[in-house]
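ok trying again, last paste got cut off:
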Amino acid sequence: MRIGVVSDTHGSHAAMRKVIEKAGTVDLWLHAGDYSYDADFIRKVTGLPVWTVAGNCDGRAKDKPHEVIELEGHRIWLTHGHRDRVKHWGSEALLAQSFNYGADIVVYGHTHRPDIFRSTGVLIVNPGSPSEPRSEPFGTFAVIEIQGTEVEATLVQLD
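nice, full thing came through this time. structure:
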């Protein structure tokens, strides 16, 4: 299973078109908030399922602040990260929280900085931002690949 992962799209349909094109074939999408209604754009363009959560810039969005998704025998905790203060405490705070949800994959955003690492059996993925990158010269997104018990994440840079 291939999963496209975006966050912090901030309404840029041009950036989302680039992401969708560069991602190639994926089975579904995860959107980790900030303009979570961009998930509707992804659904419309791709016809694929999209899970999304509300970020700090989503106002009165109908989306939940986090979701726990079970796919292919794995539990994914999808969150924006602002409620867990990732800008102050870093992604380590999410790692600690992942155990509360029984998650072996955590997807978050908020920082606009891509980050992929594994610790204590948990894969942590921040795809960065395709439209407003803060640490990269170009926008980014991620792809998670699940094959049985093997899970890998790759950062993809837009040019």
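cool. The domain at 2-157 is CATH 3.60.21.10 (Purple Acid Phosphatase; chain A, domain 2). Residues 13-23 form the longest helix (11 residues).
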